[in-house]
Amino acid sequence: MFDQQVTIYNWHKAGQAESWNRTVISGVAYRYTTEKTVSSSGAVIMTPMLYITIPAEADAQGKTYVDYVSYLAMSPQHAAEHWTVNPKCNQEVVVCGACDTEITENYRISSLKKDHMKSGLVCGLEDNTDEELLKHYRVVCR
């Protein structure tokens, strides 16, 4: 059931320097779909959506999960040892599968999303790790 992989790119800023830490997480489940809505003018809008379930015990390459407030307060070196999900910054992206591409000054998030159809910007997070059964994070991306 939880036999898929995703790659999450966590945004971090220290002073003026921005960086994205890449973590491949194994043992997850995802669903990629397109949602159709109709605007007030009658135009049909198709929005690609990615829903990911990450069990608390999923393999994150030895990195530990921290909340995004703590993550942003860390030094860049310390942050690279962790992973998080930040739905507020509009700078974090998830790619389905293992992805070894790095985000740089010359290769931005828009290029990554263009090159990987099953990807999206993080826009929502449910922390269900206080549940009695199946402790997990539910991530929503557009």
Question: Which tags fit this structure?
Answer:
single chain, 142 residues, mainly beta, 6-stranded antiparallel beta barrel, 3 helices
Q: How many H/I helical runs?
A: 3
Counting helices, strands and paired strands, the structural category is: mainly beta
The general outline is globular
Describe the strand arrangement of the main beta sheet, using strand numbers.
1-2-3-8-7-6
Name the helicity range.
10-25%
Strand content: over 45%
Mean pLDDT: 96
Number of domains: 1
Which sheet architecture does the biggest sheet show?
Answer: 6 strands, antiparallel, barrel
Number of DSSP strand runs: 8
pLDDT below 50 for ≥5 consecutive residues: which ranges?
Answer: none
